[in-house]
UniProtKB/TrEMBL annotation:
Entries under SUPFAM superfamilies matching the protein: Ribonuclease H-like (SSF53098)
Binding, a divalent metal cation: D15, E16, D107
Enzyme class of the recorded protein, top EC level: hydrolase
Major location category of this protein: cytoplasm
Keywords: Cytoplasm, Endonuclease, Hydrolase, Manganese, Metal-binding, Nuclease
EC number: 3.1.26.4
Cofactor: Mn(2+); Mg(2+)
Gene of this entry: rnhB
UniProt name for this protein: Ribonuclease HII
Species name: Kordia algicida OT-1
The RNase H type-2 domain, residue ranges: 9-198
GO molecular function: manganese ion binding; RNA binding; RNA-DNA hybrid ribonuclease activity
Annotated catalysed reactions: Endonucleolytic cleavage to 5'-phosphomonoester
GO cellular component: cytoplasm; ribonuclease H2 complex
Cell location: Cytoplasm
Length: 198
């Protein structure tokens, strides 16, 4: 179980999912948990099975003081780059909180100030702080649900399984069928993209 390290006052944890994907949005979540929150299985979403994440999502939504989730779509990602899109997503997720946090903790090492709220970036924070872990679970489950939905539209890419990540199967499908409106055109979608015969 993660150590619940909370500062005095309302602290929001924030994280994103889908940064390294070739298709679909980058999805961010922000969560404020009550001080007495505890959960035996909550951890960094990457350490949890899909089944455990699905069990945790309604628990977090029910027990959090407030939470917010935001998708930043490929057109925007291509325009402002993936790092800025990730931070924008976290800002939008924080903006959806029904209570303004007094402090923000962010998974990773990059963030931009949100309003005048003090923040701290924490590398591997999703494995150290419950509120970041909770945000990582919401970001991942909301993004997975979105990818499963658009899978119905373009089943040949098998997003239901690969969720838009650069698997061999996904790259092969791009090679065979080309790209869709859900692909990030600024990403290196195929390994040989930059080795053009001039």
């Amino acid at each position: 179980m993660l150590a619940l390290q909370l500062l005095d006052g309302l602290e929001a944890g924030t994280d994103e999912a889908g940064r390294g994907c070739l298709a679909g949005p980058v999805t961010a979540a922000a969560v404020i948990l009550p001080k007495d929150f505890s959960n035996e299985i909550l951890n960094d979403s990457k350490q949890l099975s899909e089944k455990k994440r699905e069990i945790l999502r309604p628990v977090i939504e029910l027990e959090a003081l407030t939470f917010g989730v935001a998708h930043i779509y490929p057109v925007e990602i291509d325009k402002i780059n993936i790092l800025n899109a990730s931070i924008l997503g976290m800002h939008q997720a924080i903006a959806k909180l029904s209570t303004v946090p007094e402090h923000i903790i962010v998974d990773g090492n990059k963030f931009k100030p949100y309003k005048d709220i003090p923040y701290q970036t924490i590398i591997k924070g999703d494995g150290k702080y419950l509120n970041i872990a909770a945000a990582s679970v919401l970001a991942k489950t909301y993004r997975d649900a979105y990818m499963e939905k658009i899978h119905e539209e373009f089943p040949m890419y098998n997003w239901k399984k690969n969720k838009g990540y650069p698997t061999v199967e996904h790259r092969e499908a791009i090679k065979k069928y080309g790209t869709t409106k859900y692909h990030r055109m600024s990403f290196r979608l195929l390994p040989e993209q930059y080795s053009l015969d001039l």
